[in-house]
C-alpha cells in the first residue's frame, strides 16, 4: 500500500545500483546504532520492515500471517533478520510483504487469501517465496490484497484480488495468483496500490489510476470505478504518486502537492468532504515526496522538514497528540528528514544521518522498541549489532 521512493514514487529503485545511492543519501552522518542504518522502510497494518545499507532485511511487529518472514507466526518486538539474502526494495501490504532482491528477483510472504503473493497459490507463507522466475523486477507495491510491480523494461504487472478491477485487466479475472501484465505499454515508471485501487506514473509524466473509486480515490472527477488504466487529467508533470486506503496523494515537478478521495479524517490535507479530482494542498511549492497510509499522509519539504495530517487516533501524526489534523502539521523541528518513509496507523521515516524513527500505534510492537506502548512522537529504532 505504501510506496517506496525518495520522490514518493515506488518504482524508482533500480536494483543494487540505486540501493547504494539511497544508502549514501541517508548516511551523511554517523549511524545512530552500531550496525548499518536502514536504507528503505515499509509499514503494513501492524508490522514494519527495513532494508539496511548492507542490503540485509529486517522485520518486526505482528506476525500472525507470517508477514515478518522469519519462518514463524510469532510476533517480534524488535527487528529480526529475514534470511541471508541481499535486498534492493520492499513494500508492506496489510498482512503481507513483498521485496525485490539485488539480483532482480521478486519475493513475497505472509497472508495469501487472494493470491496476493503471486506464487500461484492462496497458501499463507511464513518465509519469502519467489514470484515466478523473472530477474528484471525494479519495484513492487503491496496493497490490502493485491500487488503490482514494474519491471526494468517498463512493463507493469499486477496480481491478487480483482473484485473492483484493481488489477487493470478489465475485470476479466476475479482472483489472479500469478503476475498479469497490465496492457501493452512499456513506459511505466512507478506504481502504488491502495485498498482496492491502483495508480501509476509513466515516463512521460502522466498519471493513471484504476479500480475502486467509491470515495473519488481515482481522481477522475466521478466516484465510479475503472477496470483499466485511466489517465488523470492532462498534466505531464507528475513526479510521484502514493495510494492510501481510499485516497491518493501525488507531487508534481513544480513542487506542489495534490490529494483526492476520502477525507473523513482530513487525510487530503484540506477541510471538507471527499474530492473526486486532484485538489492542491495549500500553496507550498517545496514538497519533495509524500506517502499515504490508511487514513494518514506524511510529506517532506526541500528544507528537510516533515509534515503529517489526517487520522491521529494512535498518535501517528507525531505531534504529541491524538487530534486529527486537516492540514499538514509539522513533526518536531528537525530538518533532517528524508522522503524515505512508511505511513499507516504507525509511521516510520529515515533521517539523513541514517537513523530510523517510528511512532503511532504499537499494539503489536510494530515500532520495534521492545514494547507495545503507543508513541505520539518519533522514537529511534535500535537495530541489533
Structure description:
There is one protein chain. The chain is 3% helix and 42% strand. The chain has 385 residues and is mainly beta. It is globular and about 50 Å long. The two termini are 30 Å apart. Residues 1-33 form the signal peptide.
- Could you list the spans in which at least 5 consecutive residues all have pLDDT below 50? 2-35
- Please list the strands of the largest sheet in the order they lie side by side: 1-2-3-4
Mean pLDDT: 91
The backbone outline, from C-alpha atoms, is: globular
**What is the string of helix and strand elements?**
HEEEEEEEEEEEEEEEEEEEEEEEEEEEE
Number of helical stretches of at least 4 residues: 1
CA(first)-CA(last) distance: 30 Å
Radius of gyration, in Å, reads 18 Å
Secondary structure tally: strands: 28
Strand content: 35-45%
Structural class: mainly beta
The major beta sheet can be summarized as: 4 strands, antiparallel
Percent helix, as a range, is under 10%
Provide keyphrases for this structure.
4-stranded antiparallel β-sheet; Ran_GTPase-activating; signal; 385 residues; Reg_chr_condens; 42% strand; disordered N terminus; 3% helix; mainly beta; RCC1/BLIP-II
Architecture blueprint of SSEs:
Layout: H1 15-25, E1 38-43, E2 47-52, E3 57-61, E4 76-81, E5 87-92, E6 96-101, E7 106-110, E8 125-130, E9 137-142, E10 146-151, E11 156-161, E12 175-181, E13 188-193, E14 197-202, E15 207-211, E16 226-231, E17 238-243, E18 247-252, E19 257-261, E20 275-280, E21 287-292, E22 296-301, E23 306-310, E24 325-330, E25 337-342, E26 346-351, E27 356-360, E28 375-380
Antiparallel strand pairs: 1-2, 2-3, 3-4, 5-6, 6-7, 7-8, 9-10, 10-11, 11-12, 13-14, 14-15, 15-16, 17-18, 18-19, 19-20, 21-22, 22-23, 23-24, 25-26, 26-27, 27-28
